[in-house]
């Protein structure tokens, strides 16, 4: 009987822990959840980082083939859609 109660308690605990994670992993269009993403994501108008730390970053990041619109955020877009209204530069995709 005690083993059934212990198993039930462990099952409820596992469901509670995994249920909370679902809220954190909802990402926007062209984004994916990553538990260990680069500190140097690709960004429109920014050349690829020459030096980048190996620190894991948790959160929503652009899917492969997409870049972040702006240094401080924005949508994930295809590199060929990056346009600069000020300088006419193109993106620097990797």
UniProtKB/TrEMBL annotation:
A single GO molecular function, which one? Answer: peptidase inhibitor activity
Q: Does the keyword Disulfide bond apply?
A: yes
Q: Where is the TIL domain?
A: 27-82
Q: Which InterPro entries match?
A: Ser_inhib-like_sf, SerProtInhib-TIL_Domain, TIL_dom
Q: Which residues form the signal peptide?
A: 1-19
Q: Which Pfam families match?
A: TIL
Q: Which residues form a coiled coil?
A: none
Q: Does this entry carry the keyword Disulfide bond?
A: yes
Domain of life of the organism encoding this protein: Eukaryota
Recite the UniProt keywords alphabetically. Disulfide bond, Protease inhibitor, Signal
For this protein, the record's PANTHER family field holds:
RIDDLE, SERINE PROTEASE INHIBITOR 1 PROTEIN
Its name, as the record gives it, is: TIL domain-containing protein
Q: From which organism does this entry originate?
A: Anopheles coluzzii (African malaria mosquito)
Tell me the classification of the organism that encodes this protein.
Eukaryota, Metazoa, Ecdysozoa, Arthropoda, Hexapoda
């Amino acid at each position: 009987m005690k083993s059934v109660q212990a198993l039930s308690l462990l099952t409820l605990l596992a469901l509670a822990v995994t249920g909370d994670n679902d809220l954190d992993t909802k990402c926007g269009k062209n984004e994916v959840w990553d538990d260990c993403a680069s500190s140097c994501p690709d960004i429109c108008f920014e050349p690829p980082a020459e030096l980048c730390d190996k620190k894991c970053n948790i959160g929503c990041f652009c899917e492969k083939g997409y870049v972040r619109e702006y240094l401080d955020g924005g949508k994930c877009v295809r590199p060929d859609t990056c346009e600069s209204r000020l300088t006419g530069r193109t993106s620097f995709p990797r």
